[in-house]
# Entry
Amino acid sequence: MIENRSLVIIGSGPAGLAAAVRARKSGIDDVLLLEREDQLGGILKQCIHTGFGVKIFKEELTGPEFASRYIRKVKELGIDYRLDTMVISMDEGKNITAVNPRDGLVVYKAECVILAMGCRERARGALRIPGTNPSGIFTAGTAQKFVNIEGMKPGKTALILGSGDIGLIMARRLALEGMKVKAVCEIMPYPGGLERNIIQCLEDFDIPLRLSHTVVRIHGGHRLEGVTIARVDELLKPVPGTEEYVKCDMLLLSVGLIPENELSREAGIIIDPVTGGAIVNQNLETSVEGIFACGNVLHVHDLVDYVAIEAERAAKSAVEKIKGKGKDPKKRIQITAGNGIRYTVPQIIDYYDENEKIKIYFRSSDKLDESRVTVTCKGKNIYTKKYKRLIPAEMEYIKITASDIKGRKVIIEAEKR
Amino acid sequence: MKKEMICIRCPKGCRMNVEYENEKIIRVTGNGCKKGEAYAFDEIVKPMRIVTSTVRVVGGRLPVVPVKTSIPVRRSIIFPVMQEIYKASVKAPIKEGQVLIKNPADCGADVVATLGMEKTGTKDD
Amino acid sequence: MKKQYDIAIIGAGVVGALIARRLSFYDVSICLLERHIDAAMGASGANSGIVHAGYDAEPGSLKARFNILGTGMMPGLCRQMGVPYKNTGSLVVAFDEDDEARIDDLYKNGIAENIEGLEIISGEKAREMEPALNPGITKALFASTAGVVSPYKLNIAAVENAVANGVDFIRETNVEGINGARGGFIIQTSRGNINAGTIINCAGIYADDIAAMAGDGFFHLTPRKGEYLLMDRSEGGLVERVIFQPPSDKGKGVLVMTTVDGNLLIGPDANVADSKEDIETHADSLDYVYRTALRSCGGLKLGKVITSFAGLRATPDTGDFIIGESIKVPGFFNAAGIESPGLSSAPAIAEHMAGLISESLGGLVEKKEYSKGKGNHDFFRDMTLEEKEKAIRENPDYGQVVCRCENVTKAEIIESIKGPAGARTVDGVKRRTRAGMGRCQGGFCLPAVIDILAGELGISKEDVMKGDPGSYIFAGRTRE
# Structure
């Protein structure tokens, strides 16, 4: 079966939902939202903690509440969506092949596509943690689903590796549900998650945070019996003699998120090796015309509100393209992440209008107190902003004016003042 | 007593040193603005938290429904509130915002559902 | 469970399973005993999955003989059973003159054994065939008959085939003692006694212990561990053929290959294991594997590793496979010490063992009807769009993709549980369907696989295991 659509959005997490609502409100009446699970909402369904919506709804909501605000709008606006629907392939011509038990196999021919597939968690294998292969090693997100949606305890006593926000939040969830958390180990000398989560998830429950520590060995035959942790040096290599055995039957991994771009690659979209997401311009258009990306499939965000805001921008761009308002840029400018900057999004600026204010999101590559971020073009400084503190865990942005960019390359850098 | 803390009232994240005695703040240093002092007071004298968890569901699409306290509760009574949450059980259907436990452990807040849930075998839409 | 069998086979690894399958064509009663909850949980589930050309072993040895015969049988056998097999060919690469001398010796071995399709080629020719090979490679031995197979799928398919033909697959049953004699053995197991006229010992790394129980412990097995790194399917295809380095006293050396499922695999090293249960991986071993593999192909990316694992070789002190009837205990047959090239040899060992057993029992008669395998079996992810459409129309569960990395559907998972010798565990589902074997390593599909297992087996989620008993996933419910 073949179906034509102006706009197909893949994924109904916060990015997909926000993009669908925005596109429908802007007059696209055949938006189609594809979701592989049996409910809309994506990962928000299992994020039952608060902290969502402060920017958008000016209220502190839980994940399910945040999702339901959008889901209600999706239903009110009559936006078409398909649940239990897995996209199995996508090509450069924006033909999307999807399957579900009801409709069977359908090829959607889309004028525009918004990628909103989110990300997956890095697993044990990618870390090559040596040792045995027992049951009891889970990614933090899988454990979150078990505890929050299925009401299951994935063990009794945990060690958590990685102080990303999911790891911290799961530490609190386990503690609240009567499981013990021995420690959260973080290989870096600074925590990966937000400060408020360090306080409210670890300190509130007297859970130790072991910075510069990692798991070096897994013990146990059938079920995890314990792990050996060790301190690491500046090169992140375990220091011999610092090993400690920690008895636990559960190891949760919160060691990084990887944008799920297998479909994007199949469609020939160029991926940024640093973000793991598509290379995009300020309209969030990828290297394949008419395919846009937003949310964690583009780069991993720390706040869901930013995901939704980004998704609305992607939707706005897609709508303009569908309505034929897309223009050709006068020139294309490359943004280089220089010293102190891990990555930027967008990576490309398409120059349309000299007055356009262009927002560039970035993460610093290290913790920098009392720092300054500069943008230079042809060796000339065109922008400076001071920061009290930059940390990789917190995304920041700057705004530059198109007319300030004289060349075809800009470099953004961060350094201590 | 001394405590080092990072103010989380705004993204600046000031690293502060707080001196206090018996729930009385003596001195706050390192804060960039007044908010820092207020934060130090709240955290040391009267820390408040919204508690989120799940409550057992009978006859619902899922075995548990996510819940939260309607307003922040004193950090010191999180576990007494949890004790009430462990014991509670609710029958589907449940509406988002429905009060499932009234004022548990006299915390001053109600426990409310953060997700609507239909009975088993019915879709939520 | 019956208590009386004509033949008891101990061990459902690939050798035991293929022997069970072959004997199941005859009109005899057979049980296949397995200490684990599933087949392929020892070395057969943790090896390279290579079908060797056969030039490695000493000419005239059992290893050489069964390898060459088995490799010849493998394509047809896999077709019969619907097991993925690919004739890729292999290259042994040389880096210097010493290596060149070694591959010359291998070539001579091969010629002495009449192996077809062997050729010594130049470094340039090798790089033409495999552009990922390093410039430092001076010569290579090409073997056209080598291939790759999914070892655990071959193993499981053989058990399923045997069960479909009436073999009793008795799992979670540990052999603890063997008494009696030919025609009337009594096998003491963790689940009570089983009587059998003939015993075939295919107990892998424990085969020496089993032989000793029977009263003929004339050989000793040393567990030698090999560690591997498995990489994402995005890296598969870096090499088309199996790339070996010249063998040393430690084994065939570290190889680089694309598995039949499309992942890139590097390994193994070889070290004596601490025990017969020791399948721990080590940082320095995995490091060694990676560094050594880099000598063959510089383009290997450590960041693409999705999992690491270790397997144990059952190395006999006799220097060769131990195949045949015990002299001291008639009626007790060994298929022991089956280290590399054991997988390649297994089909021929099965054929040979079936002959020996038939002879010993005075000539077995074939059943009127039996299956040689379920034939080609298409996985959803390999189907054409039309086939996918048709599959979903016939069974909507094909439209429910459970494992998103490997595109495994609910229908396939249910089938893997319901089949003869079906999966009982998460790992069992994984080995049969690949659900959880992809880049996210089960992060997404694990909850769904647990639900399906609980539903199909009629057990609660708390009782779903990853593998053997004790490998529970849940410690209970948050709200009892």
